[in-house]
Amino acid sequence: MSLMRNIARSYRAPGRVVAALDAQGVREPQLLFFLCLACGLIFLSQWPVLSRAAALDPSISFEQRLGGALFGVMFMLPLILYGVAGLLQLGMRLVSGPVAGLRVRLALFWALVAIAPLMLVHGGLRGFLGSSLAVQLFGFVVLAAFLYILGAGLRSVARLTREGAG
Description:
The protein is mainly alpha-helical. The chain has helices at residues 3-10, 14-23, 28-45, 47-56, 62-96, 101-129, 133-165. The chain has one domain. The model has no long low-confidence stretch (mean pLDDT 93).
């Protein structure tokens, strides 16, 4: 199934999407693609915010802000996310038994890809409206969607691991 259809399906049945991706035999290169795609879209979502900040405070140019965001989102965030995936794997081991790290990374990175469209909208809202209450509430919606998709994905990979072991 296509990437966009899987993203749309992730809001209705995220566990099934992760299970279908796992059944297709997703390997590390595909996971790295998901991670790079998510980070690239998150970086893109920061542009309106950075542009607004540069217009309000011209002492730091837009290009300088963009360079800092590029370093943070495209270079540091993937390293942090691999660490988070390791912690999630450890937590899954304590709660539901051992789960393959590849499957945990699939659930985490797919959740990031799935919420990337919401991140783009949120970035646009922050860039145009600033830090208003409505924008902050939408940020909580984005966080809730991420946690929902991640939680369902982790439950799905735990179930797949139990079924494969049994």
